[in-house]
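sry for the spam today, last one i promise. C-alpha cells for design, 579 residues
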C-alpha cells in the first residue's frame, strides 16, 4: 500500500533523504550484528497492567517471536495491505507485532489502551481492519479492561474484523489465544512458508507501515498513514539532539502508538541498534527505579514531572547523569527555572520538542540553543533561508508563518501566525478522508498545524509558541477535540447547550471543563455528565470532563459564535493552585 505521491518519492529520494531501507531490513541488520545483545525489556511492574511476567529479549529472541507471529498471520489469512489493529500496553509484544507486520506488508493501526467502543467503532469502520492484537485484559486486578471481549463484541457490527488475537491467561470465547509465541523455532516447512510470504509481499520503503490516530477539531479521530521512509527520516533529529551513541539504552514512558513513542522508542531504537526499556502506566517510583537500574542513556518526561523532580532532589539520588545527559520534554511550555536547574545542578540538557503525528516537528536542543533560558521558550526557525542549524532535519524541512486573517507570510517579530511545514517528515494526507486532507494543506503544499507562533530573538532566528488556533484540549499529551465532546454531551438529558474548554493543570497540562447551560427543571452535577459519557457513549476515560461550569447561557458574539475565551477565563477559577 503506497499512499505517498510519486513526485514526493522522486524528490526526496533524489535528495538522499528517503531510501530503500525498510523497518524489517533494518531489524535484520541489527539481528545479524548483535544477535545476543539485549533488544527490548518489559517494565518490572508488568503484572499490574497486563498478563505474564516481565521479560527481557535479545535480538535473536525477538526474531523468534516475530517468526511465530508471521506464521500466525499466515494461518489467519492476513496478507500484504491488510490492516490490523493493535491495542496493547507498553510491552515487548508490541515490537514483535510491528516487526511481523512490517515483514509481510501488513499495516498496523495502533490505538491507545484507553480507547473504548466510541473511538473504535469509527476506526474499524474507516480502516476495515481484519484483525486485532491485544491482551485478554489490560489493567490491574479488579480494574481490568476486558479488551479481547470488547473487540469480540464489536465484530457483529464490523464484518471485516475476522479475528481477535490475544495474549492472556483467561480463555475468551471467539479469541485466538496466542500463548507463548516464542515456544520454539519454526519447523522447516513453516520457516519456508514465512520466507515465501516475505518474498511475495516485496515490501518497499514507501509502503505504509502504520496508521496512527490524531484528534483535531473534527469530532472523529483522523488516521495518519506513515511509510517506512516517513518514519526513518525522524530518528536523526532525536539522535543528534540527544547525542545518543550507537546501541544506546532508551527508557520509553510514552504509549507506543503515535509520533512521540514510535519515533523515539521504535524508529530510533532500530537506527541505533539499541535497547528499549518499556514503562507503563506512568509511575514515578517505577520510572526512577528504571533510571537507576537500567543504565539509561536517554528518556523523555512531561514538564510537570521534571519540575517536581527538581523540587524534590532527593528523588534523583543514584541516577547516573553522566550517562543520562539529555532528557526530552514537550507538549506544554517549559519552565526556564527547570531547564536551567537541570543544566547547572546535574549537567543535564533538557531538549524542548514540538511535534505532531502529521510530522510537523521542531527541536530545541543545546546544540542550537545553548542558553537554557532561551531553550525553554524558543525553537529554531527551521527551514528558513539564511538560518543554519546543527540538527540535520532543519535542513530538510521548510516552514512558514502565516497570518490567518490575510494569508500573508509573517517575516517580522512579535506578530502571531500559524506555523506551517513542508518536507520529508510531513505526511501526505489523512486516511480515506480527502476533504480533511485538502483542508490540512495550503495552496503551496504546506501542512497547516493550527498552532500559533511568533518570530523572536535578537536576530529573528527563533519561533516562540503562543497558542492554538484549533479548538483542542491537550491533556497529558493527548489531543481531545472539543467538538467531539460537545457533540456527545449535547444529547445528554438535561443539557440545553454546551461548550468544552481546557483548564490549566500543573501535572496534566490541561483538564477538560464542560460549560453547560442546563435545560429548564434540570440541575446536573459533574458525575451525571461523566456517567453519561462513560456508560452511554463509551468514550475513552482521558476524554471525561473533570470540571463543570454551569452557565445560564453560552456567551456569543453578534454573529452567534461561542466566546470560548470568556469561558476559559471563568473555568480557570475552578482549578486549584494556579497562579
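last one done:
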Amino acid at each position: 500500500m503506497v499512499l505517498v505521491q510519486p513526485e514526493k518519492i522522486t524528490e526526496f529520494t533524489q535528495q538522499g533523504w528517503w531510501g530503500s531501507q525498510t523497518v524489517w531490513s533494518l531489524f535484520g541488520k541489527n539481528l545479524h550484528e548483535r544477535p545476543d545483545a539485549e533488544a527490548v525489556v518489559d517494565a518490572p511492574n508488568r503484572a499490574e497492567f497486563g498478563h505474564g511476567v516481565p521479560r527481557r529479549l535479545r535480538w535473536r529472541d525477538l526474531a523468534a517471536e516475530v517468526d511465530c507471529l508471521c506464521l500466525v498471520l499466515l494461518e489467519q489469512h492476513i496478507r500484504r495491505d491488510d490492516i490490523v489493529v493493535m491495542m496493547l500496553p507498553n510491552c515487548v509484544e508490541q515490537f514483535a507485532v510491528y516487526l511481523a507486520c512490517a515483514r509481510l506488508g501488513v499495516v498496523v493501526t495502533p490505538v491507545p489502551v484507553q480507547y473504548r467502543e466510541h473511538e473504535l467503532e469509527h476506526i474499524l469502520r474507516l480502516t476495515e481492519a481484519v484483525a486485532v492484537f491485544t491482551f485478554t485484559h489490560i489493567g490491574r486486578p479488579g480494574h481490568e479492561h476486558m479488551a479481547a471481549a470488547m473487540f469480540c463484541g464489536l465484530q457483529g457490527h464490523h464484518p471485516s474484523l475476522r479475528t481477535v488475537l490475544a495474549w492472556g491467561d483467561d480463555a475468551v470465547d471467539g479469541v485466538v489465544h496466542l500463548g507463548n509465541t516464542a515456544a520454539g523455532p519454526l519447523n522447516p516447512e513453516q520457516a519456508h512458508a514465512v520466507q515465501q510470504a516475505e518474498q511475495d509481499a516485496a515490501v518497499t520503503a514507501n509502503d505504509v507501515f502504520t496508521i496512527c490516530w490524531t484528534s483535531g477539531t473534527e469530532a472523529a479521530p483522523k488516521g495518519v498513514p506513515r511509510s517506512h521512509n516517513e518514519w526513518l527520516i525522524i530518528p536523526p533529529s532525536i539522535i543528534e539532539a540527544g547525542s545518543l551513541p550507537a546501541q544506546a539504552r532508551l527508557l520509553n514512558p510514552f504509549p507506543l502508538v503515535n509520533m512521540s513513542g514510535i519515533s523515539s522508542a521504535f524508529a530510533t531504537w532500530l537506527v541505533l541498534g539499541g535497547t528499549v526499556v518499556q514503562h507503563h502506566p506512568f509511575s514515578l517510583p517505577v520510572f526512577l527505579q528504571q533510571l537507576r537500574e537500567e543504565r539509561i542513556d536517554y528518556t523523555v518526561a512531561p514538564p510537570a514531572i521534571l519540575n517536581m523532580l527538581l523540587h524534590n532532589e532527593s528523588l534523583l539520588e543514584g541516577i547516573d547523569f553522566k550517562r543520562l545527559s539529555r532528557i526530552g520534554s514537550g507538549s506544554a511550555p517549559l519552565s526556564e527555572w527547570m531547564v536551567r536547574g537541570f543544566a547547572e545542578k546535574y549537567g543535564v540538557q533538557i531538549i524542548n520538542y514540538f511535534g505532531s503525528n502529521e510530522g510537523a516537528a521542531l527541536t530545541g536542543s543545546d546544540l542550537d540553543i545553548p542558553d537554557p533560558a532561551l531553550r525553554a521558550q524558543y525553537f529554531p526557525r527551521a527551514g528558513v533561508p539564511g538560518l543554519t542549524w546543527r540538527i540535520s532535519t532543519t535542513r530538510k524541512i521548510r516552514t512558514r508563518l502565516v497570518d490567518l486573517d490575510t494569508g500573508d507570510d509573517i517575516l517580522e517579530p512579535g506578530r502571531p501566525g500559524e506555523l506551517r511545514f513542508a518536507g520529508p517528515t510531513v505526511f501526505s494526507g489523512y486516511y480515506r478522508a480527502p476533504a480533511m486532507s485538502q483542508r490540512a494543506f495550503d495552496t503551496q503544499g504546506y501542512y497547516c498545524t493550527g498552532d500559533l507562533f511568533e518570530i523572536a530573538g535578537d536576530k529573528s532566528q527563533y519561533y516562540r509558541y503562543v497558542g492554538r488556533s484549533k479548538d483542542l484540549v491537550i491533556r497529558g499529551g493527548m489531543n481531545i477535540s472539543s467538538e467531539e465532546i460537545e457533540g456527545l454531551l449535547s444529547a445528554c438529558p438535561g443539557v440545553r447547550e454546551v461548550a468544552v474548554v481546557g483548564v490549566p493543570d500543573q501535572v496534566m497540562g490541561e483538564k477538560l471543563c464542560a460549560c453547560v447551560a442546563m435545560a429548564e427543571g434540570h440541575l446536573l452535577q459533574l458525575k451525571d455528565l461523566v456517567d453519561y459519557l462513560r456508560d452511554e457513549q463509551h468514550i475513552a476515560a482521558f476524554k471525561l470532563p473533570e470540571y463543570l461550569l454551569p452557565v445560564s447561557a453560552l456567551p456569543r458574539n453578534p454573529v452567534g459564535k461561542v466566546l470560548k475565551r470568556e469561558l476559559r477565563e471563568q473555568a480557570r477559577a475552578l482549578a486549584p493552585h494556579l497562579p
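The first strand starts at residue 38 and ends at 41. ok im logging off now
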